[in-house]
Every structure is written in C-alpha cells, then in structure tokens.
Amino acid sequence: MLLSALALQSSARATEDAAFTRFIASLWPEAQAAGVSRETFERETRGLEPNYKLPDLALPGRPATGASAQAEFVQVPASYVKEATIARLAAEGQRQMQKHRAALDLIERQFGVPATMVLALWARETDYGRYTSPYDTLRVVATQAYVGRRKEQYRDEFIFALKILDEGVVSRGEFRSSWAGASGLTQFLPSEYYKHGVDLDGDGRVDIWHSVPDALASAAKQLADKGWQPGVRWAYEVRAPADVDCTMGVPEVQRPIGEWLRAGFAPLRVQSLSTIEQGQAASLLQPEGIYGPSFLTTKNYFVIKEYNFSDLYVLFVGHLSDRMVDPQPFGTPWSASTQLRTTSVEAMQKYLTRAGLYRDKIDGKAGMLTRAALGAYQKSAGLKVDCWPSETVLRSMNGAR
Known about the structure:
The chain is α+β, with helices and mostly antiparallel strands. It contains 19 helices and eight strands. It has helices at 2-25, 28-33, 38-45, 71-74, 77-80, 83-99, 101-111, 115-126, 137-147, 151-167, 190-196, 212-225, 257-262, 275-278, 299-305, 311-323, 342-354, 368-381, 391-400, and strands spanning 135-136, 176-177, 235-239, 254-256, 266-267, 281-285, 287-290, 294-297. The strands form two sheets. Strands 4-6-8-3-5 form a five-stranded antiparallel β-sheet. The longest helix has 24 residues, at 2-25. It is globular, with a radius of gyration of 23 Å.
C-alpha cells in the first residue's frame, strides 16, 4: 500500500511538472515580443521547476495558501516599529548619508524626495544591502504566473525577469527576491525596474543590485511617479482629544490639518505648523485604535503605502526617515496590545461584510478600513469604541450570529 501511494504521488508530481514545463514553453512568443533572445529563454527556463511552498498560491485540489504572514500584518506596532531597530538604522543612515552625499543631493534635486526617505526605504527593505533575499526570482515569478492568485500580473513579471537576465544587468545567481518577486537593494518587481529604474551613476545601465546611487534614485523616482509632493511631510504625530471618534480613521475622511488642530488634535514632534502646512489635507491614522500614537497623514503617506501596502511599513519608514535628523521617538508610546490571529480577523471581516459595515478584502489584516468598521460595529453593539480587533469584540460577534 505504501509503495502504491508513493507511486501515485510520484506520478502526480510528474504530471504537474510536465504541465508547468508546457506552460513555460507557451510563453516564448511573449518573451520574443519583449526582445528576449531564444538563447536566453532556453538557458534560463531549462530545468525550471515550480516552488509550491510559496505563499499566495491557488493550487488545484488544495486550499489556497493565502498571503504570507508578513511581519507588517501580524505583529503589533511595538514589535514592528521597534525602538532599538529604529535607533540602529537611523545611526547607520546618518553614516550612509555622508558616504553617498553627492548622489543623494542629486536625487533630492531631480525627484524632490528627501535623502532620509530613500535611505529609510533601503534600510527597511534590505538593511542597507546586508540582507540577501532567499528566493530565485525567475522561479518565484514563474510559479506565481502558473498557480498564483495573480496569474496575469506575474505572467508579465516573468517576461520582464527574463528581459533583465537577457540584458545581463544581473546574473541568475544574484537575481534573488522575496516570495513575491521583489529584488534588488530597494526591492523592485521586474516590471518596476523598467518603469522606475534610473542610471544615476552614469555607467550606461540601471543596476539596482550593486549600484547604491541607481537603487536609491530608482526608489525616489518610483515615489515621484506615484505622486510624491516635494516639501510635504509624510505625517504629523498628534495627541488626539479624549473624545476622538476613531471610526474617522480612513483615507476618505480628509480635512485641512488646521481643521484637525482646531478640533483638539495637538502636534507632538513639531512646535508649530506654517499656514501652508495647516492648509494641507490629511487623514487620521490610529494604528492601535484609540491606544498608542495618532497621526495626521498627508498625501505622501499614501504614496509610500504604494511601495508597500501596510500602515506599519509606512510608519517604520517615515519615522526612521525623521530619526535620521531628529533623535526624538514617538511622543506617545505604543500600548501593550495583542494581535489576534489572522483567522480571527478574517472571521471579523466576514461578519462586518455581512453587516454592511465593511466592503474591502477579506485578508485577515487589521488595516485602516477594518479598524473603522470594527468601531462602527462597536457603536451599534453598545461596546467600548476603540477600533481595535480584540477577543471581546470577537466574542460579541460570535454571540450575535
């Protein structure tokens, strides 16, 4: 029986591998149209195998693997925006600023993005180049194109990855990525390399794997291309009034900063705001609901969020950028909140969707829209309104079914 089962498994794997090989071969016309040589296509796809252990896959006959349990989405803020880490990276950022001063000055003039911001992105993504991504990029994007939940997107990424290899900018061995296919010092998808890549060092090629000037300039151009506003802060930390309605903490609720201040929100890290600053539109962000720090977020906050769609990621990068010029930590400490399991947050999102309070993705991540919907539920259920996913709220929802 055991031998029979093993034989069946082996046969199934062989069938899967053959289907994958046929799929990859079928992409040759698209690669050819993109300018990839037949030699490169054959060399790089020979022996290529899928990696079915990656997250975000939808494998036939198996449960969808779901998105990875990234730290940005499962850790409480105090664990992710850790003071010791911020302090270490800020000190290193100051050293890197001196080392790459000429390139950073050029980046600021050309793209309007502060040097500290691109350094903070570099720090968060690869610890100033010390971290090496664990996966073979081509294998990642090929697998995601074959059985991922975003097949069409990764079909394009696979073609762009082949194009990068065909141009010889980086070797296959150095073309390492995250599970989602982001590669280089500042972690670009292959398509982003072509959209936003910059040859700042002037050697005739865009090299985000070895050239720090190219990588930082490319990160700045990506922010600029997504709408970065020069001279505008990413966010202002504020002390919220005691009667704050945390359900307002969504991007759609925007007010001039001056209006927020007149409503009782007090800035903490800056002494005073200019008339121009007070006229800027901002949204309220409370990453721990009514607990922990509060922020008024500008358009630039959401530009950074397009680099990585996580509030904690943006807070980390923005705060690290500030800390390179100002040693002050956040004025309000993080609370000792706990983070519910992803499955529990998913259950909450499903309940909130049925109740008509939530219309976004069911992903188990307690982002802005989920927190606001929780606050709305808490109001309707007569619970304390804190916009935070807790066991108390989960029990209330379970009892209401």
